[in-house]
Automatic annotation (TrEMBL):
InterPro entries, per database record: FAD-dep_OxRdtase_2_FAD-bd, FAD/NAD-bd_sf, FRD_SDH_FAD_BS, Fum_R/Succ_DH_flav-like_C_sf, Fum_Rdtase/Succ_DH_flav-like_C, SdhA/FrdA/AprA, Succ_DH/fumarate_Rdtase_cat_sf, Succ_DH_flav_su_fwd
Enzyme class: oxidoreductase
Keyword Electron transport attached: yes
KW Protease (keyword) present: no
Organism the protein comes from: Deinococcus aquiradiocola
Residue positions of the active site: R265 (proton acceptor)
Keywords: Electron transport, FAD, Flavoprotein, Membrane, Oxidoreductase, Transport, Tricarboxylic acid cycle
Modified residues (Tele-8alpha-FAD histidine): H25
Name of the protein this chain belongs to: Succinate dehydrogenase flavoprotein subunit
Cofactor(s), names only, from the UniProt record: FAD
């Protein structure tokens, strides 16, 4: 979306992609994109804005939520006009279904707001936008792994990237740069994230002495296929799927009596873990819960949830039409990332100064639309709304700016980084370190957290960092050297884990997806603010803060019925 809108700004646009573009992780998004179209029942952008803020546990920047809730309506219709094959109502309108946390009249009841294309919405968005970029003449550099951002005197001049096919290092000069590289879920053992989501650009930004915002807030999706973490969309519950424990009880009636299984993701994930902890789990290890679709019509399961059905049959040998499917929470989405303005400009410090010519959108960015816990469907909405804004403002800047001068030796850091990894004679193994990182992050900085465990993780990360410096790469090849790339990615993952753990240990309250067993209560007086994490020396992290943008919605907000 960013590239497409930059191209519409009549500038020369190139996309540097770690993967072939249509293999990007957006293709894994299933459930839909939330927009208050009102095609099934009355709906309004104000209700969507309120749900976004409440879902984010009031850490959401409310100016971002307002821009988003208005713009996403137009963006969905725009995708429709581009040819995206949305599912349809009998009248031919874009079909909409219920989704966790989406309500009418400021929380009174669930509402149909998720616009979907069966359970392949992200895949359809990705294909549609790629086709539009081909039409617009966007240049693609596929399978180029970015290693560095070139920032000189507060301005971004371009990037340095490693070409997988040749092993060559390339320097790209640009008037403006947009980062849209996704999240870092591979730091966890059980995750819905693809293997490539290792937080590369977040880490590179962090290594520059620039801040990462709200890294302590990481969303665990309540329903991933047990052991595998493969996502089971919230749309399953939107269509009427029910969570059940080993006794067959619909346990969400006890945790969220009003909207039950359609409660926000943080609530449902904690409820599932509580059921498991209290001995009501299922499966050989009693560490899962069932999702029950057996009461739904077969045609609903086969048509509206066809991808989920295929995944369950393929990976678990279970048929959702007749079988209960075991699920468990899976690391899913980073609410934090590179701090940006609502115009997608990257923020350089606590005072709000900008990195000139640098923009970010999507999961890599933190405009703080999602606050402490992202509302389901708002990830795809975030992409199309703030991707569009990034493209518009980056192209506007590029049309008036001069081409920046490249600093001497702009690629030197990247060449030294690759050489250091390739020529290291140490005895450590990247895969072994990565496995320990993922297991310990899952145990110590997972759904439930406490100070002693997170302090232990800080020490573990320092040890893993020291061991990482002794990793050797046995493959000397230059073409598609996956061992080299995975070792570089491990370094990026360690940075993200370091920033996340320090930020979580520092926040002594529970809010949204950050749930501390030693600080159960929210503390707005002390903690209604954003964390800004800066890389220090020897694994230390410096913490700063940024205020939350408020526009009248607080936890004490008691809405009056609106008359339309």
């Amino acid at each position: 979306m960013a590239a497409l809108y930059a191209a519409k700004g009549d500038v020369s646009v190139a996309v540097i992609s770690k993967l072939y573009p249509t293999r990007s992780h957006t293709g894994a998004a299933q459930g839909g994109v939330g927009a208050a179209l009102g095609n099934i029942a009355e709906d309004h952008w104000e209700w969507h804005m309120f749900d976004t803020i409440k879902g984010g546990d009031y850490l959401t920047d409310q100016d971002a939520a307002e821009v988003f809730s208005k713009d996403v309506i137009e963006a969905v219709y725009e995708l429709e006009h581009m040819g995206l094959p949305f599912s349809r109502t009998p009248e031919g309108k874009i079909a909409q279904r219920k989704f966790g946390g989406h309500t009418r009249e400021f929380g009174k009841a669930a509402v149909e707001r998720s616009c979907y294309a069966k359970d392949r919405t992200g895949h359809m968005i990705l294909q549609t936008l790629y086709q539009q970029n081909v039409k617009a003449g966007t240049t693609f550099f596929n399978e180029f792994h970015v290693l560095d951002l070139i920032i000189e005197n507060g301005r971004c001049c371009g990037v340095v990237a490693y070409e997988l096919a040749t092993g060559e290092i390339h320097t790209f000069q640009a008037k403006s740069v947009i980062l849209a590289s996704g999240g870092y879920g591979r730091i966890f053992k059980i995750t819905s994230n693809a293997l490539t989501l290792s937080g590369d650009l977040m880490s590179i930004y962090y290594r520059k002495g620039l801040p990462l915002e709200d890294m302590e807030f990481y969303q665990f999706h309540p329903t991933g296929l047990t052991k595998l973490g493969i996502l089971i969309t919230e749309g399953v519950r939107g269509e009427g799927g029910i969570l059940r424990n080993k006794d067959g009880e619909r346990f969400m009636e006890r945790y969220a009596p009003t909207i039950k299984d359609l409660a926000p993701r943080d609530m449902v994930s904690r409820a599932i873990i509580t059921e498991i902890r209290e001995g009501r789990g299922v499966g050989p290890d009693k560490d899962a819960i069932y999702i029950d679709l057996t009461h739904l019509p077969k045609d609903v399961i086969e048509t509206k949830l066809s991808e989920i059905t295929d995944l369950s049959r393929t990976y678990l040998g279970l048929d959702p039409v007749t079988d209960l499917v075991p699920i468990q929470p899976t690391a899913h989405y980073a609410m934090g990332g590179i701090p940006t303005t609502i115009d997608a400009e990257c923020i350089a410090n606590d005072q709000g100064d900008l990195v000139e010519g640098l923009y970010a959108a999507g999961e890599v960015a933190c405009v703080s639309l999602h606050g402490a816990n992202r509302l389901g469907t708002n990830s795809l909405g975030d992409l199309i709304v703030f991707g569009r804004r990034a493209g518009m403002f980056a192209s506007k800047y590029a049309k008036t700016a001069d081409m920046p001068d490249m600093p001497e030796g702009a690629d030197l850091y990247s060449r030294e980084l690759v050489a250091r990894v390739k020529d290291n004679g140490g005895s450590e193994n990247a895969a072994r370190i990565r496995k320990e990182l993922q297991a310990t992050m899952m145990d110590n900085v997972g759904i439930f957290r406490n100070g002693p465990d997170m302090q232990k993780q800080v020490d573990i990360l320092k040890d893993l960092r020291a061991r990482y410096n002794q990793v050797s790469v046995s493959d000397p090849s230059t073409r598609y050297n996956s061992e080299l790339i995975e070792t570089l990615e491990l370094g990026f993952m360690l940075d993200c884990a370091e920033a996340m753990t320090a930020s979580a240990l520092n926040r002594t309250e529970s809010r949204g997806a950050h749930d501390r067993e030693d600080f159960h209560a929210r503390n707005d007086e002390q903690w209604l603010k954003h964390t800004m994490a800066y890389k220090g020396e020897n694994g230390e992290v410096r913490i700063g803060y940024k205020p939350v943008a408020l526009k009248g919605y607080t936890r004490a907000f008691e809405p009056k019925p609106r008359v339309y």
